[in-house]
Amino acid sequence: MASSSSSSKTGLKKMLTLKSSDGDEFELEESIVIQCQTIKHMVEDGFSLIPLQNVDTKTLTKIIEYMKKHAEKTESNKEEIKNFNKEFVKGSFDDQFELVSAANYLHINGLMDLLCQSIADRINNKSVRAVREIFNISNDYTPDEEEKVRDEHKWAHEGGEFDESLD
Amino acid sequence: MISADPPGDEMTNILSTLLVEALMQFRSVCKSWCSIIRDPHFVNMHMNHHSSYKESSYLISKDIMLDVAEIKARFTLYSDETFTEHKKMEFPLWESIKSFEVFGCCNVARKVINETEYDDFVVSFNMADHVFEEIMLPKSCLDDGELTVSLAVFRDSLYLFVHGRELPGWWHVLMMGEDCSG
């Protein structure tokens, strides 16, 4: 396995295979895949078949789509990339969370920033109740404790209209 | 689905991109969110994300508003680069006529303000959420009229130096905890 890292000198584009947790394999050029720090390190260690036990096929397909597009990035297609990013973050919260976890695991910094920012933009104006639903968090405060925390920052709770929707 | 407990990197990353107003509100989502949001490292991370709160980027002036009915102390934060007014605020903690001075800033977020003369507490002000907090100083050293006290901020701690007839001693007061040590 260790011998494959020097084969790129033959002129052929070096290909790598990513294997999802569902067992599906995706063959990609090394130049695309090395945007991902975790894989880059594995490639440097001589791997050419990369098993990703934490990433399912659906999520991996999206991530590959992102990496392919961003590998094309030049000075002249900034607008195109921007539009791509906008479309990319349109999925449901659950899809976004899957992607954030994968982006974090794979160390794709650009994708991580994009997703965190888009999730934050979507929840900035949400009510506490909606946020709990969206993140599937159960309220572990007693009513008294919650009241106390809210009292500390009354100004943050005043006057605003909060969005109760879950999308 | 991201697990909120224990909070992962992902959650911290998402929270650090939120607006301050949202963060303050979301302290009441659950205890683990609250502790992430209160964590000094998180506060730093959040400030780095939001360039409007750069380190030491404010000047403070005190304005006393004289009114027939009441005297109100306010202060104003100015940006130190442009001198534009950032925010006007009221002192929530003190009698208006007393004076104060700013001792410094630690944890990036926290400015320490002290009420001068004969008082046994200092006040910290958190730039991230605009919250004031009182820090009580060890009482015993201050009650003795023979001692003089000075304060300094260094790294992430507030130091209290006590000078007396005997050897000088010092306390340091941890900013984030309440402990005083001699």
Structural class of chain B: alpha+beta
Oligomer: heterodimer
Total E-strand runs of chain A: 3
Give the rounded overall mean pLDDT of chain A: 87
Major sheet summary line of chain B: 4 strands, antiparallel
Number of helices of chain A: 9
Strand content of chain A: 5-15%
Describe this structure in a few short sentences.
The complex is a heterodimer of chains A (about 170) and B (about 180). Helix content of chain A is about 55%, strand content about 10%. With about 170 residues, chain A is mainly alpha-helical.
Description:
Chain B: It comes from Anisodus tanguticus. Chain B: This is F-box domain-containing protein. Chain B: It holds the Pfam family F-box. Chain B: Residues 11-42 form the F-box domain. The complex is a heterodimer of chains A (167) and B (182). Chain A has helices at 30-33, 37-44, 57-71, 78-88, 93-106, 109-123, 128-135, 143-152, 154-157; strands at residues 15-19, 25-29, 49-51. By secondary structure, chain A is mostly helical. The radius of gyration of chain A is 21 Å and the shape is elongated. Mean pLDDT of chain A is 87; it is low at 1-9. Helix content of chain B is 21%, strand content 39%. The longest helix of chain B has 10 residues, at 40-49. Chain A binds chain B through residues 94, 97-98, 100-101, 104, 112, 116-117, 119-120, 123-126, 128, 131-132, 135-141, 146, 149-150, 152-153, 155-157, 160, 162, and chain B through 1-2, 4-5, 8-10, 13-19, 21-22, 24-34, 129-131.
